[in-house]
Specification:
Number of helices: 10
Helix content: 25-40%
Strand order of the largest sheet: 1-2-4-3-5-8-6-7
Structural class: alpha/beta
Distance between the termini: 68 Å
Radius of gyration: 24 Å
Order of helices and strands: HHHHEEEHHEHEEHEHEHEEEEEEE
Shape: globular
Oligomer: single chain
Bound molecules: zinc ion
Largest sheet: 8 strands, mixed
Strand content: 15-25%
Length: 463
């Protein structure tokens, strides 16, 4: 019997791998059961508080990075102190601080400036971090604002000595929306009473409009001090549902994730789509396989540069005529829509924060732990165990597909063999599952780029 049984089992496994139907939109079959604790966090997001916070934030008139720092009622100095105080008032569990950097003149920073990001840390069981952010600085480029730049209306005026840093720049949507989303989620998570595995960092950046200065300075320090950052949820311009072209969409949000296709940023984007499908099913996640909108950027790129997985949320349809002008006012913000985007963030951060870290699928020397196994024709997956994991889930898909098509949940092991599944024809990934069922990001096995040495050629007439 046994000699017949073994090949049969092997055949069945292969047949299963090949015949298992592709999941509809790649999501349906991987939904975890909804966790009531996460549901409570999502439900705790307050549209009314978002409105109160943003009304107060725009009352500072401008939050331009080089604007007045001395006043407590106007410009960036007053605004950042208010954000600090508001985070402190939110919960005694938040460790609130200014993240201060002395920035030398460079590019659009025309004089030395003391830049302050405002951060609130909610410590988890482990020091590995998940970031949630928006930039609180604002900008008024005058005349046509961003619309002028978009349509080739001349160079960026910020570098000129005559640029007025104290002119009205309400920045209600850019990026007051992302700022108050961050402040509100800090409260919601701190008040949830839950202990997360990851340490959550809620941070409001300055200097974004001068070239991501605040986030870059912060990310540089993270790298220098060897912090582990598992994910960064950046929110920039997430509160308006009516595009400048008249298109209205309050039911979807865009998530931009830098490649290559199996980057951890893309893994994070897929994760957000899945958690939103479970906890905020009324909101659609539109995944964008690029770093950001065409020719534009934000603070997630500072984290990408530093080697951390980072994505950015962007509203469905922008109104460029309001951005970077005196017109970026409260009436351009749809608070119900902003609250939905905050809930999507909350669902992703909560599930990821409760999950163990993603398994490492490379060796300490950076080599892939994927091979063809002893037979030479199997998919032999190995990985390093994740602290806190009780099980793992294997994912695979056709190489030409952009989302996982097949999956299998397995026990608490660090190796799994798919017999007769070619590692040349499929992409594989592994996620760790914690005791309460929450899953990490999927770590994919990435085929290394092969670089060939330059061929030395002898040129005529020396042949
Ligand atoms: Zn912005």
């Amino acid at each position: 019997m046994t000699h017949l049984n073994r090949p049969l089992t092997k055949f069945l496994l292969v047949a299963l791998a090949v015949a298992m139907p592709t999941m509809a939109n790649g999501q349906a079959a991987v939904r975890p059961d909804a966790d009531p604790r996460v549901e409570r966090i999502v439900a705790a997001v307050s549209e009314e508080r978002l409105r109160q916070l943003l009304t107060r934030l725009v009352s500072f008139g401008t939050r331009e990075t080089l604007s007045n720092q001395a006043s407590t009622t106007r410009a960036i100095g007053g605004a950042r102190q208010w954000i600090f105080d508001e985070l402190k008032r939110s919960s005694p569990k938040l460790q609130v601080s200014f993240d201060i950097h002395q920035i030398a003149p460079q590019g659009r920073i025309t004089r030395q400036v003391e830049l302050r990001n405002v951060m609130a840390v909610l410590p988890g069981r482990s020091p590995r971090r998940i970031y949630i952010s928006g930039h609180y600085d604002s900008l008024n480029l005058g005349d046509r604002g961003q619309a002028g730049l978009n349509t080739g209306g001349g160079g960026n005026p910020q570098a000129s000595a005559e640029f007025n840093h104290d002119v009205e720049a309400p920045g209600a949507n850019d990026d007051g929306s992302g700022t108050v989303l961050t402040i509100e989620l800090a409260r919601v998570f701190a008040e949830s009473g839950l202990e997360f595995d990851a340490t959550l960092v809620f941070i409001c950046w300055a200097g974004e409009e001068q070239g991501l200065i605040g986030s870059a300075a912060h990310a540089q320090e993270l790298v220098a001090t060897k912090f582990v950052v598992d994910a960064m949820f950046n929110n920039d311009i997430v509160g308006n549902s009516r595009g400048g072209n008249g298109v209205v969409d309050a039911e979807s949000v865009r998530v931009y994730a830098v490649g290559p296709e199996d980057s951890m940023a893309r893994s994070l984007a897929r994760y957000i789509a899945r958690s939103a499908a479970v906890y905020v099913p009324s909101h659609q996640i539109r995944l964008m396989a690029r770093e950001d909108r065409f020719g534009r950027g934000s603070d997630q790129s500072s984290f990408t540069q530093a080697g951390y997985p980072a994505i950015v949320f962007r509203e469905a349809n922008e109104n460029f005529s309001k951005q970077h002008s005196a017109n970026d006012t409260l009436d351009g913000v749809d608070f119900a829509y902003l609250a939905q985007n905050a809930r999507v963030n909350a669902a992703g951060v909560a599930t990821l924060g409760l999950a163990p870290p993603a398994p490492k699928v490379t060796s300490e020397r950076g080599q892939n732990l994927l091979s063809r196994g002893k037979s030479g024709y199997d998919a032999d997956l190995r990985w390093a165990s994740s602290p806190g994991a009780v099980a793992y889930r294997i994912y695979w898909r056709d190489t030409w597909s952009n989302d996982w098509q097949r999956q299998q949940t397995i026990g608490n092991v660090t190796q799994f063999i798919l017999p007769n599944v070619s590692i040349d024809d499929f992409v594989f990934g592994v996620a760790a599952i914690g005791a309460d069922g929450h899953e990490s990001l999927v770590s994919a096995y990435v085929s290394p780029v092969r670089r060939s040495a330059e061929v030395k050629v002898i040129k005529w007439p020396n042949v």
